[in-house]
What does this fold into?
Amino acid sequence: MAVCGVCFRHCDLGEGRIGFCGARICAGGTVRAANYGRITSLALDPIEKKPLRRFRPGSLILSAGSYGCNLRCPFCQNHEISWSKEAMRYAERAELATPEQIAETALYYRRKGNIGVAFTYNEPLVGYEFVRDTAKLVHEKGMVNVLVSNGTAEISVLEEILPCIDAMNIDLKGFTDRYYRDVLGGDRDMVMCFISRAVQACHVELTTLIIPGENDSEEEMHEMCEWIASLDGMVPGKEIPLHISRFFPRFHMTDREATSVKKIYRLAEIARGHLKYVYTGNC
It folds into this structure.
């Protein structure tokens, strides 16, 4: 038996067993990333798609994804590679790539405006070892690294990758323990600790997807933005960009109505009472 140290779940795994995230396995008495180098998605994306609005705007970035996730968001946009039944089929078909190959591919596309590598699509930190190893090589080639994460990881994991990460977009999915625990299967305190440390070390932007009836109250937005504004990092907390995005029915939430544009604009107005940079998405 061995205990995984990536997130709050601390999965206790017997030999050959896979953790909750579907991406970590006990092998030889230790837990490692079963998805190491298993690439399910690779694309040259605008940096704004991550979304990052105040980091190298107008650039392109090579975006790489694997499979697995340690949350269970019922509205997941990338459920085919995260935690659905399809995820394991994608895992079986995933292309195997080395950190060297990803770094070389990033360098090849530099001529087309690529600035580096974004680790995204699924939850990158369930395979943080590949992020760490690849990001080091990307930095050696004079390019940048971006992490798009749900922030559900121990600080020890974050510290391993921080030296090579230039920017992050972190999901702050809501601001109540009920929502994180009962809807997402997560831990809000862990995400808040992750964000608090990340803002001290690199450029950070946050994203909140607004789900009708779940995390859409004005009071919750006030409380969340007050907390963001209080953070002490590379920039004052009030200058941390926040993306407020509109939900559309998908995956296990097809019975919900899309978030109204009016609601998004109202919550953005509230957020701007605390934060300097607030962006609306999917409107």
